[in-house]
């Protein structure tokens, strides 16, 4: 098959379009013919220097939508007589009982062990043995990818492959941050940093769907206009002003209830300053660096909470996909590029001019 491979970490020039053997599935795995694979910022770091990357040579790609091409002998498929329990169906978790060759699917990108204390407690996102598809396994910058059968989720015909590929990492992360970790409520004020980012553009919609009032930041007027199109109540160009000052003005000195952080070093102090009393800052990333200044006095005087969040759980992704199917959440696609243009897609993301997701699509004729 054709794939984008890197043999050593480094710049975009390390990404090569090559012929590699098709993945061989184990008995409990499924082979998926990739129709669309989203690019994530994690891919840039993985290509550059993240030490967790395996195997080498490596194929990136955590967000995959496609068709089931082969099902392992022990995977629970439609050829099995057993029907899924009704409660699984109700929760959307019994979907795996329908997996069959040719089915349109999306892959839940967190490959969790299923037997550690956190997995058993239903907190899969804390699994110590977790591998992220395309990061600690080969991923979807290829014509085929394999994944455990329990990670395969069928998608309805209402959702295109590109839309489905735009969902997992960004919407799952944003949902886990805002709904599960920060417990965002209707009527609250939420500040979403860099709302044109993959996670930010998902968070914007989740926050609006939750009935929150949204303050969005971005570095260009064009991105701010798009953020408004997608429902932001206020859009702030943080390159021109201290966004915490503007947030304070717009909230009559109060601040926001929740800050959605993923930028890190450059913004963390202003993010803390933007919070109202009892406010929650929820963070998943450090795009601009790990180390931040914090005025500790603000934290205890205003009784703030700083909440960490990483990826999410399969049940959350199933719920998100239902909302996408119902048209209540809309994956935002910046552009779809042929697979062989992966290096170009990485450059576009590095130049940070995109709004929403960049999607790679292998040759659909193969
Ligand atoms: N822990 C998790 O579970 C998890 C999951 C997904 C993503 N993340 C993290 O969340 C962050 C965003 O990911 P993404 O895939 O949404 O990224 P993305 O689509 O590439 O968006 C990143 C945006 O951040 C803004 N930005 C601000 N300062 C920047 C800087 N110094 N360098 C580059 N960009 C900067 C830019 O928008 P403006 O120019 O408008 O500011 C840029 O477009 C990343 O750090 C990623 O690793 C974490
Ligand atoms: Zn586990």
Distinctive features:
366 residues; alpha/beta; Quinone Oxidoreductase, Chain A, domain 1; 2 domains; seven-stranded mixed sheet; 12 helices; 27% helix; binds NADP nicotinamide-adenine-dinucleotide phosphate; binds zinc ion
Architecture blueprint of SSEs:
Blueprint: E1 2-5, E2 16-19, E3 29-38, H1 41-48, E4 63-71, H2 86-91, E5 104-107, E6 110-111, H3 117-120, E7 131-132, E8 144-148, E9 152-154, H4 161-165, H5 168-181, E10 189-192, H6 198-209, E11 213-218, H7 221-229, E12 234-237, H8 243-250, E13 256-261, H9 268-273, E14 275-283, H10 296-301, E15 305-308, H11 314-325, E16 333-338, H12 342-350, E17 357-361
Parallel strand pairs: 10-11, 10-13, 11-12, 13-14, 14-15, 16-17
Antiparallel strand pairs: 1-2, 3-4, 3-8, 3-17, 4-5, 5-9, 6-7
Helix pairs in contact: 5-6
Bound molecules: NADP nicotinamide-adenine-dinucleotide phosphate and zinc ion (ZN).
The site of zinc ion has 7 residues, from helix 3.
What's a quick, concise take on this entry?
Helix 6 (198-209) links the parallel strand 10 (189-192) and strand 11 (213-218).
Q: Explain this structure to me?
A:
This protein folds into two domains: 2-166 and 331-361, Quinone Oxidoreductase, Chain A, domain 1 (Alpha-Beta Complex); 171-308, Quinone Oxidoreductase, Chain A, domain 1 (Alpha-Beta Complex), CATH 3.90.180.10. 27% of the residues lie in helices and 24% in strands. It starts with a strand and ends in a 5-residue tail after the last strand. It has twelve helices and 17 strands. The model is unreliable at 78-82 and 87-96 (pLDDT under 50). It is of the alpha/beta class and 366 residues long. Strands 3, 4, 5, 8, 9, 16 and 17 form a seven-stranded mixed beta sheet that branches. A six-stranded parallel beta sheet has the order 12-11-10-13-14-15, with helices on both faces. The chain has a two-stranded antiparallel ribbon with strand order 1-2. Helix 9 (268-273) links the parallel strand 13 and strand 14 (275-283). The structure holds NADP nicotinamide-adenine-dinucleotide phosphate (NAP) and zinc ion (ZN). Zinc ion binds at residues 112-113, 116, 118-119, 127, 129.
